[in-house]
C-alpha cells in the first residue's frame, strides 16, 4: 500500500511540474534554513557542556569602584585563586589562565602562534580536554612545560612522538619541554588553544596580587549547588580584604569584590568577554524564531498550492470514492503524498545544506563540517521534523479533499469554501509582514554599521601597520623604530602598550585641590614619542611629549629624581573641573607626581557601545608591546616590502607578522557584522518564500475566478483591467503587511540601537524602502498569474466552467 501511495505521489509530481517544483523548492528552502540555524543554535547553547564537571565549575569576575566609577571585568589578579582556595572549603581546585600570542620555534622553523594559553597545573583536573599523551597531573606542574594540541603537534613534529622534545618561545634562553598532547579544543569551548604552557613559567606567578588583573580564573566547587552561598561568603570576605589589605574605609564609596558565573552560562549570558568573545542568547532566540517562521511560511505555501490544485483533482477523487475508497484511505493517500514530497525536500535540504556550509561558516564565523548533519541525534531530529512538516502541510489539504460529498464532486467538482479565504489572506499578510520586518531591521543594522565605519573617531586608523614587540624584540625597539622612520613611504613611527581602538588598561590619579584631594578612575595607556602624530590625534591645549620629557624619567638614586609627564583627554579634564587650558601645568599623582603637559581632544578608545571615558596617556617605553608604522597610501606594497626587509635584518627570531589597525577596529563590531549578514541572508529567504505564497494564492484565486474573468472579458474588460483587478487584492495584503511590520521593526531596531552610546536616528525612508521592495517583488510575482488569466480566451474559460 505504501508503495502505491508513493507511485501516486510521483505521478502527481510529474503531472503538475510547476506546482511540484514550487512545493519542493519552498519546503527545501525552509528545511535548509532550519538545518543551518539549528546547528548554529545547538553549537551556541551547548557551549562547555562537554566538560564532565561543568556543573561544578565557575568563572570569577571582578567588580571595583574607584572615585565613583564602577567597573566590571572578567580578569582577576593572581591572588584570587590561591586565596579563595585557602579560605573557602567549598572550593576543590582553581586554575588561572592567560592568553598571549608567542613566536614558537623548533630550531628549524618559527610560527606566530595566536592561541597560546598559560594555565595552572590543575587545568586537566578541572576541564575535560582529553590528553592523548602525557600525564595530566604533572603536565603543567613546573615552569617551562608545554602541552600541544593534536594538530599543532603534527605541524611541528609530524607523526612522530613529540614527548620530551623542546620548543623555544619568543627566543627565550630556556626551552620548553613538550609534556603532553591534547585533543584539539571543541568548537563550542570558551577556551581555545593550540598550546598550553605552565602558568608557573610566568614571572607573575611568583607573586600573589589582587590588583594586577590580567588573568581569567576558574574555580572547581565540591558541589555546584554551593555557588550562591559561596558568592555571598566571597562578598563578605572581600569587605574584610578591602579594609585590612587595601586600606579602604569600611563604609566608604570605593570597594573591590568578585562574583561567580556558572561555566555553562558564561558564553550566552555574561556581559564580560573572557578568553574568547561571548555569544548572545537573544540572537539564539531570534534565529530560532526566524527558522520556525520560515518553515511555517513553507508549510503555508504547500497548503495554498495543494488547495489551489484541488479543483483539478475532483475527477480523480470522485472515481476513487465510486470505486469504494474510504475517507481514511484518501487521508493516507494525501498525507502519503505530503510525506513523499517532504522526504524528497529533506534529502535535497541535507545535500544543499552541506554545499552551503562554507558560505554559512563565512557568515557566522564558525567552522561547521558536513559531519554536523550526520550525527545520529541530528538525523533522528531531522526525520522527526520531516514527519511533523508533512503532517502540518498535508493535513488541511487532505481534510478539504476528502470531506467533500461524492454527489457534489460528481455534480460540479471540488469547491473549496470561501470561508477559509480570510485565513489564507491572513497567512499571506503574515508572511510578508515577516519579510518586511526582516528587510527593515537589516537596513537599520546596515545603516548603524555604516555610521560606525564613517564616524570620526578622533584618530586615523587607516594605513597604520601594527607589529608586535616581545621581550626579545624590546632591546632592539629604538633601533628598529629609527630604521623604519628612514624607510621611504613611512610617515611616522611610535609604540604603545595597546592600540587606540581598544584601551583596557585601568588606572587612577589623584589631584590636590582647594577642597581636598580628588581621585579619578580612568583608562590609561603607556606610549612612546610621536604617538599623537602617528595616530592623527589633535590637542585641545598644551603640547605633545618631547625628548625632554623622557629625560625627566631619571631612575637613579632609587627613583628619587623621577618625574612624569602626562596627557589627559577632554573628558578627564572636565571631570576634574578644569578647562583644557587650566589643566596644562597641573600636578597629578600616579604612583608619584607628574605634570600635565597637554590635553588631547576626546577620541573613542573603546567601541561605540560605550561613551568616551576619561583617559591618561603617559610615557613609558618599557611597557611597549606594539609598534605602529603610519605609511603613505601610495605604493603600499613596496613600503611593506621595505619594512619587511628592515625587520628581517634585525629580528631573526620571529616572522614579519603585521596587520593594519582598521582590522582591529572591524573586529570590535564583528558580532554586529555577522548579525547584519545573517539577517540579510534570511530576509532574502523569507521574501522568496513569501513570494511563493503569493504565487500559490494567485494561482488559487485565478482558478476560482475563471468564469468571472471570462465574463468580464466578454463584457469588454481589457488585459490591463483584468491584471489590475487580480493584482490589486494582493497588493492590499502587502500594504497591510507593511503597516503591521513597520512599527514592529522600528521597535526592534530602537531596542537594538540602545546598546550603542553613539547611534543613528531611524529614518522614515528605511520603512518606505522595505515596503517598496516588498510591493515591487509582490507585483512581479502576482503578475504572472494575472497576465495569464487576462490573456486567456474567455470562450475556453466559460466552456471549462
Could you walk me through the main structural features you see in this protein, from its secondary elements to its overall organization?
Strands 1, 2, 3, 4, 5, 6, 7, 8, 9, 10, 11, 12 and 13 form a 13-stranded mixed β-sheet that branches. Strands 16, 17, 18, 19, 20, 21 and 22 form a seven-stranded mixed β-sheet that branches. Helix content is 50%, strand content 18%. It is built from 26 helices and 24 strands. The chain is of the alpha+beta class. The relative contact order is 0.11. The model is unreliable at 416-420 (pLDDT under 50). A hairpin with a 1-residue loop joins strand 20 (587-590) and strand 21 (592-600).
Count of DSSP strands: 24
Contiguous low-pLDDT stretches (5 residues minimum) are 416-420
Radius of gyration from the CA trace?
Answer: 34 Å
Largest sheet: 13 strands, mixed
Strand content: 15-25%
Tally of separate helices = 26
Mean pLDDT, to the nearest integer, reads: 83
The assigned structural class equals: alpha+beta
The rough form would be described as globular
Distance between the termini: 35 Å
In helices, the fraction of residues equals 40-55%
Identify the notable features of this structure and list them briefly.
801 residues; alpha+beta; 26 helices; 24 strands; 13-stranded mixed β-sheet; seven-stranded mixed β-sheet
Amino acid at each position: 500500500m505504501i508503495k502505491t501511495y508513493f507511485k501516486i505521489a510521483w505521478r502527481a509530481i510529474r503531472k503538475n511540474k510547476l506546482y511540484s517544483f514550487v512545493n519542493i523548492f519552498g519546503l527545501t528552502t525552509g528545511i535548509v534554513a532550519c538545518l543551518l540555524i539549528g546547528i548554529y543554535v545547538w553549537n551556541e547553547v551547548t557551549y562547555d557542556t562537554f566538560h564532565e564537571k561543568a556543573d561544578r565549575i565557575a568563572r570569577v569576575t571582578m567588580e571595583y569602584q574607584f572615585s565613583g566609577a564602577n567597573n566590571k571585568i572578567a580578569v582577576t589578579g593572581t591572588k584570587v585563586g590561591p586565596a579563595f582556595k585557602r579560605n573557602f572549603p567549598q572550593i576543590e581546585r582553581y586554575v588561572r589562565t592567560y592568553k598571549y600570542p608567542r613566536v614558537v620555534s623548533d630550531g628549524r622553523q618559527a610560527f606566530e602562534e595566536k592561541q597560546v594559553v598559560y594555565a595552572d597545573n590543575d587545568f586537566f583536573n578541572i576541564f575535560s580536554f582529553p590528553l592523548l599523551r602525557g600525564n595530566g597531573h604533572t603536565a603543567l606542574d613546573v615552569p617551562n612545560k608545554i602541552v600541544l594540541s593534536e594538530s599543532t603537534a603534527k605541524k611541528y613534529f609530524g607523526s612522530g612522538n613529540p614527548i620530551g622534545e623542546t620548543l623555544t618561545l619568543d627566543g627565550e634562553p630556556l626551552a620548553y619541554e613538550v609534556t603532553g598532547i591534547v585533543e584539539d579544543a571543541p568548537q563550542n569551548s570558551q577556551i581555545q588553544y593550540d598550546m598550553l604552557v605552565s602558568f608557573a613559567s610566568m614571572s607573575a606567578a611568583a607573586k600573589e596580587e589582587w590588583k594586577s588583573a590580567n588573568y581569567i580564573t576558574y574555580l572547581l566547587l565540591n558541589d555546584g549547588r554551593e555557588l550562591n552561598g559561596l558568592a555571598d561568603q566571597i562578598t563578605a570576605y572581600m569587605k574584610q580584604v578591602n579594609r585590612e589589605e587595601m586600606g579602604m574605609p569600611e563604609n566608604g564609596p570605593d570597594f573591590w569584590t568578585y562574583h561567580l558565573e556558572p561555566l555553562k552560562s558564561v558564553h550566552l549570558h555574561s556581559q564580560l568577554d573572557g578568553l574568547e568573545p561571548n555569544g548572545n542568547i537573544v540572537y539564539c532566540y531570534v534565529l530560532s524564531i526566524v527558522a520556525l517562521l520560515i518553515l511555517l511560511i513553507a508549510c503555508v505555501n504547500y497548503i495554498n498550492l495543494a488547495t489551489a490544485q484541488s479543483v483539478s483533482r475532483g475527477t480523480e477523487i470522485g472515481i476513487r470514492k465510486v470505486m469504494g475508497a474510504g475517507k481514511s484511505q484518501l487521508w493516507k493517500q494525501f498525507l502519503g503524498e505530503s510525506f513523499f514530497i517532504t522526504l524528497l525536500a529533506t534529502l535535497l535540504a541535507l545535500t544543499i545544506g552541506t554545499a552551503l556550509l562554507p558560505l554559512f561558516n563565512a557568515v557566522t564565523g564558525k567552522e561547521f563540517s558536513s559531519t554536523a548533519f550526520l550525527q545520529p541525534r541530528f538525523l533522528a531530529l531531522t526525520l522527526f521534523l520531516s514527519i511533523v512538516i508533512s503532517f502540518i502541510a498535508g493535513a488541511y489539504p487532505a481534510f478539504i479533499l476528502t470531506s467533500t460529498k461524492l454527489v457534489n464532486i460528481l455534480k460540479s467538482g471540488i469547491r473549496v469554501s470561501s470561508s477559509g479565504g480570510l485565513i489564507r489572506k491572513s497567512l499571506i499578510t503574515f508572511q510578508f509582514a515577516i519579510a518586511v520586518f526582516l528587510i527593515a531591521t537589516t537596513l537599520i543594522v546596515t545603516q548603524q554599521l555604516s555610521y560606525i565605519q564613517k564616524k570620526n573617531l578622533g584618530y586615523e586608523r587607516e594605513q597604520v601597520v601594527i607589529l608586535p614587540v616581545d621581550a626579545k624584540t624590546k632591546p632592539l625597539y629604538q633601533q628598529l623604530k629609527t630604521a623604519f622612520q628612514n624607510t621611504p613611504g613611512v610617515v611616522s613611527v611610535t609604540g604603545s602598550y595597546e592600540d587606540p581602538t581598544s584601551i583596557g588598561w585601568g588606572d587612577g590619579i589623584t589631584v590636590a585641590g582647594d577642597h581636598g584631594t580628588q581621585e579619578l578612575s580612568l583608562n590609561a595607556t603607556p606610549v612612546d614619542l610621536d604617538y599623537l602624530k602617528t595616530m592623527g590625534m589633535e590637542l585641545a591645549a598644551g603640547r605633545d611629549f618631547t625628548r625632554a620629557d623622557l629625560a625627566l624619567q631619571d631612575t637613579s638614586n632609587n627613583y628619587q629624581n623621577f618625574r612624569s609627564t602626562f596627557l589627559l583627554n577632554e573628558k578627564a579634564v572636565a571631570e576634574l573641573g578644569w578647562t583644557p587650558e587650566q589643566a596644562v601645568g597641573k600636578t597629578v599623582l600616579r604612583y608619584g607626581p607628574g605634570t600635565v603637559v597637554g590635553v588631547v581632544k576626546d577620541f573613542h578608545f573603546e567601541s561605540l557601545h560605550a561613551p568616551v571615558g576619561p583617559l591618561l596617556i603617559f610615557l613609558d617605553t618599557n611597557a611597549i608591546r606594539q609598534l605602529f608604522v603610519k605609511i603613505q597610501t601610495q605604493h603600499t606594497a613596496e613600503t611593506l616590502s621595505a619594512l619587511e626587509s628592515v625587520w628581517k635584518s634585525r629580528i631573526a627570531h620571529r616572522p614579519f607578522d603585521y596587520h593594519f589597525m582598521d582590522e582591529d577596529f572591524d573586529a570590535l563590531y564583528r558580532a554586529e557584522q555577522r548579525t547584519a549578514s545573517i539577517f540579510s541572508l534570511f530576509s532574502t529567504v523569507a521574501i522568496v518564500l513569501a513570494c511563493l505564497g503569493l504565487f500559490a494564492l494567485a494561482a488559487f484565486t485565478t482558478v476560482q475566478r475563471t468564469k468571472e474573468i471570462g465574463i468580464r472579458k466578454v463584457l469588454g474588460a481589457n488585459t490591463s483591467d483584468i491584471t489590475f483587478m487580480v493584482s490589486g487584492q494582493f497588493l492590499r495584503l502587502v500594504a497591510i503587511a507593511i503597516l503591521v511590520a513597520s512599527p514592529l521593526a522600528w521597535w526592534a531596531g530602537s531596542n537594538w540601537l540602545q546598546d550603542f552610546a553613539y547611534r543613528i536616528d531611524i529614518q522614515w525612508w528605511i520603512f518606505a524602502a522595505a515596503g517598496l521592495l516588498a510591493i515591487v517583488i509582490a507585483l512581479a510575482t502576482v503578475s504572472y498569474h494575472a497576465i495569464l488569466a487576462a490573456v486567456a480566451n474567455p470562450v475556453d474559460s466559460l466552456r471549462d466552467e
